[in-house]
Amino acid sequence: MTRPPQASSNLSVYLSHELRNALACIHQFGNILVDGLAGELSGEQREYVSIMLENASKIRSVLDSALDGVPGTPEECANKIKNVSKLET
Amino acid sequence: MPNKKILIVDDDPDVLQGMHVRLKANQYDICLAVDTFSGVAEARRSAPDLILLDLGLPAGGGFLVMERLKMIPSLAIIPVIVVSARDGLGNQKRAFDAGAKAFLQKPVDDNQLLAVIRQALGEPATAKKPTLHDQGAV
Questions:
Q1: Is the ipTM value over 0.90, yes or no?
Q2: pLDDT tens digits, B20-70
Q3: What's the gap in Å between the CA of B72 and the closest CA on chain A?
Q4: Do residues B100 and B81 lie in contact, with contact meaning Cβ atoms separated by under 8 Å?
Q5: Which of B11, B17, B104, B106 to mutate to test the interface with A (most CBs of A within 10 A)?
């Protein structure tokens, strides 16, 4: 079953918006920790938060490449995400 | 010299808290609002030097906030920076047309946000504390 174009476009806008808000919080609080604004981190703690931020950035790249400005169907979006994932790895 | 005051208008409490911590650490005084109505009301009450404004707000939205601010001469001169999760395709132009000084799409790099804020406030660009972003890690 295929979705009507407007519904597909709305879905990608909705997904992009919700994921970007969540990512904004991950970036904000991750960088607050790394910058020591909530107390100094140990080397190991800093490494783990850095890994978290790196992966958040990968998700952001996928979003930038796959969803924004793409009035495509969910299937097209999924294909784009797959392609970006291949590039990331 | 007193700290500059920034009003953050966003309906996401986590975003508000994160920005609050970051900006407070950079010697700004912060006031907060969570929707269209309280955004305008808080701007009137606290007369901030700058407003960080989300677009997707309950009871109207960020564009309505800018429209209302423009109708009040003392508030119309406050620089507004739009920080939104919405795509920049149509919203960026609409934000600039509505008087925004800048349009930043979430998630925003902290250093970029601070640079845009300093520029909008007419402050000199100061040496910044490096983050992982600067080191290419994220």
A1: no
A2: 999 999 999 999 999 999 999 999 999 999 999 999 999 899 999 999 999
A3: 30
A4: yes
A5: B106
